Each structure stands twice: as C-alpha cells, then as structure tokens.
Amino acid sequence: MNASVDKRRRTTGFLLYMLAGCGLLILAAAMSISFGAANIGLPTVWGAIFHYNPAIMDHQLIQTFRFPRTVADIMVGSSLAVCGAIMQGTTRNALADSGLMGISSGAAFSIALCMAFLPDRTYSVTVLLACLGAGAATGLTYFIASLGKRGMTPQRLVLAGISISMMFEAFAQYISIRFRLGQSMAYWTAGGTAGAKWGELAIIAPFYAVGILTALALSPSIAVMSLGENVASGLGSNPRVIRGISTVVVLLLTGLAVIIVGPVGFVGLITPHIVRYLIGVNYRYVIPASAVYGALLMVLADLISRLINKPFETPVGVVFAVIGVPFFLYLVRKQRREFE
C-alpha cells in the first residue's frame, strides 16, 4: 500500500512540475518574441502569430526573425537537455554532456569544413555531415576512454571527451583562419539563434521529432540502465542495444542543435541535475521533464543575451559559460573522491 501511495505521489509531482514547466515555457516564449532591441506589445505578438498581416512592420519582424528564433531556442534547448539526460543515465556519470564529451565540437568541426569546402551545399547535406562529425568525435572519445588496464570509467570518459573537444575546436579554428571564414564563423562558434529561418527549421523538424520521440520511448530502458548494466541484464534488458540506440539519438539531436545554434555547452549538463533535484532520479520522468525545462532554460538564456547589452546582442554561449562553468566546478568538487 505504501509503495502504491508513494508511486502515485511521485507521478502527481511529475505532472505538476510538467504543467508548471510548460506554463513557464509559454510565458518565456511570449517574452522572447516581445522583448529585444525594439519591444513589442503582447497583443501585437498575438496578432502576428494568429492573424498575420504582412502590411504591418511589427508582424513582419515577428514572423521573420523573433518567432522562428524562439522556436529554434525551444528545439535546441530540449535537444541538448535530453541528450544530457540520456548520457548521464546510460553512463551513470553526473558530468556527462554532449559538449563535454566532444560531440558538439565534432559536429562544429564538420560544419567548419562545410563552410570552407562546400559553400553551395544544401541544408540536408549540412545536417548529415554534422551528425557524421558528431559520430566521429563520439567514437574517438569512447576509444580513448577504453584504453588502459582499467578500461572505460565515467571519469576517464569525461577526461577523454574534454580532450577530444579541445582537439576538434582547435581544428575548427585552424579551418576558420586558413580559409578566412571570419566573423560569421566566430559568432556562430560563440552560439546564437539569431539567424534561424522557417525553411531551415522545417527541414530539421522531422529529424528533431524522431529524436525526441525515440528518447521518450527509451526512457523506461534508460531508467533501468541507470541502475547498472548487471541489474539491467538481470531484468531482461539488453544494455548494448539500449546504449547503441541512445548513442544514435544523442548524435542526431546534438548534430541538429549545433547546426542551429553552434557548439553551445552546459545546457545538457545543468538541466538534468535541476530536473532530478525537482522530481527524483527516475528517468521515465527525467527525460520528458528535461525536454521542457531545457527548452525553458534556452529561451531564457537567449532572452538575457538580447537584453543585457541593448541594442547589441551577447552570444548565448557566453551566457551559458557564465552559468555553466561554476556549476561544472561544483560538480567536480562534489565528486572529487571518485577522481582520486
């Protein structure tokens, strides 16, 4: 009886936090569309979205720039947060994140190559190559982490990921300098969704939907994996299959996020920790809640990046660096005994 009551209580808490997160996300999205270099009233925002009139300048501004930018923030934030939750669950590593594991840098390096050698590429080719770059970085990270007598451990995986990330970032900078990619590459590397367009988001949307839905379907299996491979095998799960599918989902969502915003870090690191603090460690709940709260975090960070230095914009990657670096150091300090 007590177990049944406890389960019902956790489910109720999860639903309440999801409703609160969705409400806050809608409010943050409305603020994101309204506020910027020029503030626009909410009635005008409502009219631009549901009763678009191309003759009104504010409607054009919202539909051309601010609305797609906010949608891009939601897609990026939810993708990176879900990736972080999946990686932390499958590796049982609180420091796992697509940025720290080198995945984002691998995708960014691929896009730098695209800018240098494939200037006339289609957007679909960019998506494919970004995912391939993310896959190459992941393979290198796991290979390096598995070297040595002790094999792969969560700590070695993080250290290998940071090394691979630095290597690919250096390669991307070399390509930028060698082929004079200039300010566009520098700003894209810093992170930002200012250039998001409806046509590009329409190409990405089906892949995004497949990745998020697959992650949600995997959440019960990842909940079992978070208990350890031996426990998962004992309960009838196949850890290799789960890890393989999870890796594909992470590569897909990370590649899409990097294409839209650049190699922004710490979203996938911070969000799952916040969610686990609120609703517990059951990944059946952590993954869907991470999607909502990751989107909320990204929309708020992008809004802050536009408002702290009006009328100029600060790259959103800088905002996350200010928040994420202290948080990362806190986690490292918290787990210092495991590194010794």
Automatic annotation (TrEMBL):
Protein name: Iron ABC transporter permease
Organism: Cohnella fermenti
A UniProt-annotated Pfam family: FecCD
Keywords noted in UniProt: Cell membrane, Membrane, Transmembrane, Transmembrane helix, Transport
Transmembrane segments: 12-31, 99-118, 125-145, 157-177, 198-225, 245-271, 283-308, 314-332
Membrane topology (UniProt): Multi-pass membrane protein
Family: Belongs to the binding-protein-dependent transport system permease family. FecCD subfamily.
Gene Ontology terms describing biological process: siderophore-iron import into cell
Subcellular locations according to the entry: Cell membrane
A Gene Ontology cellular-component term: plasma membrane
Alphabetized GO MF terms: transmembrane transporter activity
UniProt main location, coarse: membrane
